[in-house]
Structures are given as C-alpha cells and as structure tokens.
Records
---
Amino acid sequence: MKKIYIGMLGCGTVGTGVAKLLIRQKALIESRLGASLILKHVADIDIARDRGIFFDEGVLITDASKVVNDPQIDIVVEMIGGQGIAKELILKAIKNGKQIITANKALLAMHGSELFKASEANHTDLAYEASVGGCMPIIKSLRESLIANQIQAMTGILNGTCNFILSKITVEHCTFHEALAIAQAKGFAETDPTLDVEGYDTAHKLALLNAIAYGMKVNYNDIYIEGITRITPLDIEFARQFGYKIKLLAISKNRGGTVEARVHPAMIPFDNLLSEINGSLNAITVVGDAVGDIILYGHGAGMMPTASAVVSDIVDLARNLLNGAVGRVPALSFQTDAIKNIPVLPIDELRTHYYFRFAAIDHPGVLSKIAGVLGDHNISIKSVHQKGRKSDGAVPVVMMTHIAQEASVKKALAEISALEIVTGKPVLIRIEDKNGEDGN
C-alpha cells in the first residue's frame, strides 16, 4: 500500500485532535483512501505535555524547519495560528513543493491572495475547510457541490463564542459580561475574547466565503463589522416580544455589480431556522439559483469537530497526489483569470428595517420630538413601545421602522443623541427578515 507522509506544525487542541484521528482511525481511513497516511513529524514548542495519545519515537520535535524541509513529507498541516511564523512556514513549505492544509482563517483573510498565488505558482494545493464553520463542509459545498449555482445570498452564525453568549443572555437574562465569564469558564471564549465578541473572527470567515461564492478577491477590509458587547437582556426581551431573536450574523448578498458583506447583531424572526441554533453551534444558510435554500449546521470549534475537517482535507489532497491531480479544484473555486474586483456595498447604502431603543426623559412631547427627527430623515416608524416610568425619570422607548437607509439612520440618531430629552447612546439593531426589501 502506498504511503503518504504528513508533517504537522503545532500540536495544540486541534492539532492533537488531528493526530488522534490519524492514529486511531488509521484502518478506516486506509480502507477509504487506498493508501496509508503516515504522521512523520509533529513540531511544537512543548513536546513534554501529555496529550493523551502515543506518538512513535521521533515524531514529536521542536524544530519546525524539519517539517517544511523534509523531502519525504508530502502534506504539511499548519496548526500554529496567527499571521507571523505560520505564514513564513507555509510559504517555505509551498516553495518546497508541499501540499498545504490550514485552519487559519485570519491568515487567509489577510494574506490569502499571496498564499494562494504562491501555491498556484508552485503547483501545490492549499486546503482550508476547517477555517470556516468547524465540521460544517461549507467550503467543499461552495467549491464543488454548488458549482452550477449562482450564489445569491449567505447568512451565517459563524462564531460559537458569540452564539453561546447570546444564548446565555436570552435564556438566563444575564448581562453580556456575566455570559462572557461563563463562556470563558467553559473554555468557549479566550482570555482576551476581542476577536470573537467584536466580530472580527466572523468577518475573517465571511471574507473567504465571499471570495469562493462570487469569484471576488478576498476582501476582508471592506466588510462592515460590529460586535455584540452592547447587547443587553432588555434588547433581547424586546426582541422576544416582537417575535425575534438576536444573533451575531455574517450576511452576504449578491447585488450583481456589488456584494453586501456585513457582520453585526441582527434580529431574526422565530420562523427563521437560524433562530434555533443555540449554544456554541454554528450554522449557515446558502441561497443558490438552482438549489434554492440550503442550511448546514454543526460544531464550529472544538478539538474533534475541527480536526475532522482537517483530516477531510488531508484525505482530499492525498487522493489528488495518488492520481497526479494537483490543482484539480481551484483554491477559491474560480479559475484565477475569472476572479474579479467586485466592490463591497458601503454600509451607508444598506436599506433594511431597524430597531431603536432610546433612554428618554418621561415628559410630554418626547415621542413627537424623536419621531420628528426620524421623519426629517425619511425614516418611517412602524411601531412604538414605551416602558413605565423609572426612578431617574428616564424610560426606554423602542421604535421599529419600515425600510430605511443606513446613512439616514446614522444622521438621525446622531441628531437625537444631542437632544436634552435623551440620555445615553441610542441602541440600533438591524432586522433581517423575509420582508427586508418589500418597501414596507
């Protein structure tokens, strides 16, 4: 049986999971692949830690250069993370003719164009299924299963940390900071959760999906990004009363000459399947012109779910090697000369429904003043809700709007914030529903 040699860079949580699958599922993988996958070297700065798995003598090493320079190694799996040494080692491995696998979405979102170009120039493959959605096969689905479809839209819950936090606030009515502390205690959130809770991690993933879906360059910097730190139990309760749940969404829509690409908290109706995705699960809906709506969901992080996606890439590249078919599937689905500079729609041009919450002084005429400012900016109010008087004299006033333009909304809220009758910064949450463009 032919042997294909694997080298791995980094052996943290996911890397350990990859090693476990390659070793424990060796016979199963061989029966499906028709070749033997040999984990020759695993480079990590800590080779003494007990990972709950037995490595043969000489497999665990501290010198990463041995992995990328070993002429016997066919496939290099990067599990280091970050955008520094990981990038350097990947480029070196590509130069040495290695096939590359990574789950490093931040690296690909920021430097993907350079890495994919280097891979193509050196006639190697760069696979990255585990970089988006953990065990959900969204990249394979877009690149292969949906190849005959014009992708019209994608909407996803792509960060398990944020989904866990919002689920906790919804069910237990705790604050954002209380929910974050629980997420950190359970290992769902990092000590510094900024990449997750501010939406950057989700945007990294959306940048890759946009490129694959629409044949555009990886364009992270133009994605509008807003996190979940200002979401409160009060807003979640209002959303529930109106028939919505609040989720951090990655939203992408094909507008023909432009693409909508935005990450922010949004209200979605109870009958939207994404509203039922709770805890640390991920999910994404894709709309294709031939297939209509499809949905994928599963664990977006964690040792074994993510490792499963990495091993699927290893087997794909191994099959390519066995058949001399390097480059069979383009890294971004489209042929290089078909990838275009498609602009991202500026957020100010967005038109959708909005939820506003103001802390207003409980005096006569307050509602008419706020409504007057909104009217001056062509923002039509669909409904108004006001809670009872508070001891400090300020009450929450909630307004739901008909379709409005983002630029006008921003101007109106800035003007309302300056009114003496309003205390604190107004809360804005966009609403995503089936009537988002019906003009109502």
---
Amino acid sequence: MKNMTSGAAKNSEIRTAVRRIPTQRRSRERVARILDCATEIIAEKGSDAMRMSEVAQRAGISIGSLYQYFPDKSAIIRTLAERYGAEGRACIEAELAHVTTVDELCEAFSRLVDTYYQIFVAEPVVRDIHSGVQADKGLRDMELADSRANGAVLADAWRRVRPASDPRAISTAAFLIMHLGEATMRLAISVERGEGDALVAAYKRMALAEFRRK
C-alpha cells in the first residue's frame, strides 16, 4: 500500500468508468499508459488543471483514441480512484486476515490507519482525488461502495475476535468506522499538519475503543 500505483491494482482491468473495456494486451497497455500520464499531470498540476489534450499528448496517442477509452476527464479520475480503492482493499484484507484477538485487531487497524494517512500526506494524486469527492457524485458513490466493502472486511475480523457480539451491530459499526476514516483523512489534510496528526490520532482512539468495548 505504500505505492498506490503499483501491484495488482495498476495492472487490473479497468471497470465502470471506461467507455470501451480493453480486452487485448495492446489496448490494456494503452489504457495503463493513459492512466500513468494522467497521474503525472495530476501530481504536477492537480486534477482541475488536467486537460484531455495534454493526457493524449503525453500518452503519444490522438485525442480521438483517448476518447475511445475515456469519455471525459471525470472518467479518468474515477478509474484512478478505482485503482487506488482496489489496492487499499487488498492491503486491508492482508492486514486483517490473520487476527485472532482483540489486541491483534487493534494493532492491525492502527497500522492501517497510519499507513493510509501517510499515503494521503505523501501522494498528491490520492490527496487530490479524495479532496474532490464531495463535488463528484460518481466519486461519492464509489467511496460509499468502498466503505461498505472495506467495512465488510473489518466486520469479518471483528466478529472473529468477538464471536459473542451481535453480528449486525458489528457490521454497522465497521461500515461507519471505515466511512468515517475516509472523512477523517480529508479533514486531516485540509488543516495544518499538527492538527491533522491530532485528528487522525483521535479517530484511531475512538475506533480502538469501540473494538475493545464489550
């Protein structure tokens, strides 16, 4: 998860935001190149300044070829968000897969929060995309779906270490914790770093207290 553009998420097939799903290797490589170039531009200028013409130029393709895959800039941004979401979920699944006690759950979750926060701070593309969630319904819907999926992963681990607890209550709390985590990260990067650190630490304390509550 330290490099959100590496691994399986970078090489996975593109899903909903793409106009034409790439099936051949050459097409998949072209889409990957487009996304890499868009990532570079967002890192340099931000997504608001990204232009389709510049993406096409950097990718070495015509603007018409670009539009065959992505109907607009929002589609590129949503596809990048899907990529980062898939990578993040894989990290969550790996971290929580083997927890067997409440202490292990708390330690694993704490590591996940720290890692995710460092990504927000260090990766301008991740920061830029998540900062624009409120202005883009597609991104809002995607974040909600990611929170549900990530919450389900957390709930599985939580029920494993709290088998006597109400499974529905755990599922609801896990969904809420994961969704609040996204909101906490956006808030933390919108203020001074010291205050952001304190906000993330407070979020962690609240979540860990909920895990430990009997």
---
Amino acid sequence: MTTLMEPSVEETIVSMARRARRAAAALARSTADRRAEALRHVAEAIEAREDEIVAANALDLAAADEAGVSGAMRNRLELDRDGVARLATAIREVADQPDPLGAVEDEQVRPNGLRVARMRIPLGVVAMIYESRPNVTSDAAALCLKAGNAVVLRGGSEAIHSNRAIAEAIREGLADSDLPEDAVQLVPVADREAIDVLLRQEESIDLVIPRGGEGLIRAVTEKSRIPVLQHYKGVCHVYVDESAEPRRAVEIVHNAKVQRPGVCNAAETLLVHEGVASGLLPEIARRLVADGVELRGCERSRGILVDEGIEITPAEEDDWRAEYLDLTLAVRVVPDLEGALDHIATYGSSHTEAIVTDDDEAARTFVGAVQSSTVLVNASTRFADGGELGLGAEIGISTSKLHAFGPMGANELTTRKFVVFGEGQIRS
C-alpha cells in the first residue's frame, strides 16, 4: 500500500514561488480596470468573512494573552469588527487610485529621430515577510495587485490564524475576478525554514520586503539572495524650536509619542531649543508623564525638570539611538537649530523628523538639511504613514534611498523600462 507523503517545507515554498511567477506574467498583461475590479471583489469578500476573521483573531489574541504579550505588541495584533471594515476600506481606496502602470514618461527625440521614453511596469513577484500586524496581509496584497505584482506573504506565527482568514478571503475575491488566485499566496507554515527557502528563490522572486523588528530585517538582509528593501529602525525626532507656539508644541509632542507608541513613526527623541526649555519643557513633560511616559534626559533637561518635581532618569548614549516602541522618550536640550540638526544627523535612522516652529526660515532650513524619508513642519510624526500621505495604504517604509524612500504605495512597487519608437533607423 502506497502512502502519500506531505510535501516538505522546501517543496511547498518552491511551488508557491513558481506559481507566483506564472501569476505575475498574467498580471503584467491585465488592464487597470480588471485589477481595480478584482480589488473590489476582494474588499467584498473580506466584509463577507468578517465573522471568521474576528474569530480567527480571537484565537491569536488568546495565544498572546497566554504568552504574556501586552501593551503595544498586543495592540498591533488586535483586529476587531471596525478593524476588518478598515481593511476593506483601504482596499477600495487602493482600487480607486490612478493606475500606476503603462504611463509613458520623459519622452525625448534623439538627433537621429528616435523617440526615447520610459514606461512604468510591475516589479514581478514580491515576497513580504512580516510580524504581528494582520492588516499587512490585506494591505500588501492590495498594493501588489494594484501595481500588477504577485505576492507571497509570510506572516508571523503570532498572527497565523488572522492571516490565514484574511488570505482566504482575498483568494475568494480573486476567484470571483479575472485575475489568478495565485497572485496572492500565504505561506501555510510557521516553520522558520520557510523563510530561509523563500529567500533562496531568486529565479522566481524579484523583491523581498521585511516588515517588523530590527532583528527580523537584519536576518532577512543577511540571508537573502534577492534584493531586500530595508527599514531597520524608526528613531524619530521632534525638535521644538525657539519660536514654537507653546500649546502647539505640547499637542504635537504628546501626539507623536502617546497616540500609538508601538509603531515606527512614533517619536522616540524630543529636542528642545535652550531658549524655551526652561519655560516650555516642564509643560510638555507634565502632559507626557500624566499619560505614563518615562522620560530619559540629558543633564540640562534633568536640571530643568527635577527642579519642577518631574521625574526623569539620566539618559545614556544608547538612549539617543533607541527605538523604544513604548511609552519612553529621550529628551535633550540643544543650543539651537544647528544643534538639533547635528543630533539628528548623528543618531537618526532616516525615518521621520518634525520641527515645531513659527519661523519660516527655520522651517526651510530644517526641511532642506534633514535627510530622512519624511520631514514634517508643525505636524506630528504619526503622519508618516501611507494612508495619511494619500497612498491609500502602504506596504512598508523604506529608509534606504535606492528604489524607494519613505512610505511605499503602489507607485513604489513599479519600475521603469525604456521604450524606443523608430522609423527604420539602424546604427552605423
């Protein structure tokens, strides 16, 4: 009697990657209308499966509670009915965006009469490796489909039930459309070997996007044979300038740190101009401490706050480079704008920086000098997000400058090829 053996992890991943490559070829020939219609079917399927998705998420939350996961990490994992509705809304927003493909750009006529231009095309197959947040499953799928790419998704084990339920809904929506179901595939196993095998599929996969902690991203970068889009840390700064309006400064700093501390665009370091530190820093600190923020400060900031009866521990060198992802904030008093810029250049991670100022010249200097992927004037760092910046959703935030920089939407999941129109020219 012959026993059918289950495919190995390697066989499973290799098969998925090859099917994704075939699906990508079909997507490259699809029209904008077909892709948009498919996304609407996907949104409808997610709404129809709301009960299953919420129930699956409850299993993940129960496992997290049993493991002692709490605070910001648990918040990333949670997906209630309103959250499912937001998934569908984000997919429809992506569907309604202008088509990123096919546009002929930068056309020029050469002296020999050749018309040379560039055309936007899909990247091909994207592998998405991510932790915790189940919304990444639908966001990544929607953006890849919009840009004509197939995607292989490998979520973390902590969200495996949620990810499976969302992926099943996506494939159900694709089954009702003209696009291949294999355009979106979720790795079905939590085995870490699956990641290693996935990162060796350079013949089938064109780009790897890791989204999670610094450890995950460094591990993926070290092992991958495929180009990797990197985002190591979000060490985001808010600089309060000498001219800052006090109430505005308090509100922006508080929102940047407290509104959702466990995400990469939350503020991790506060820089305050010495000209306003004595009067304004205590007001900012009281608001933060009242909401549970632990402050770690330089000698000058501690001198100011301790005199006001506000608790602040001494900052160490590592605090200036820390991505806390929690209710902890490093605080430094700087002599001026140049001091703030020097600090950001030394300790920043090229993610997001904000200035609070009423001085137009200071704002222009800050925007021009800071080399991070998102720079804000008089607004919270929390706006460094694809949805908030008009992308509908984001597949990640790149802090490396090659190919894409900052929040990545559908346009950033394309590349450009040369197209040349002639009338019989030959080269002599």
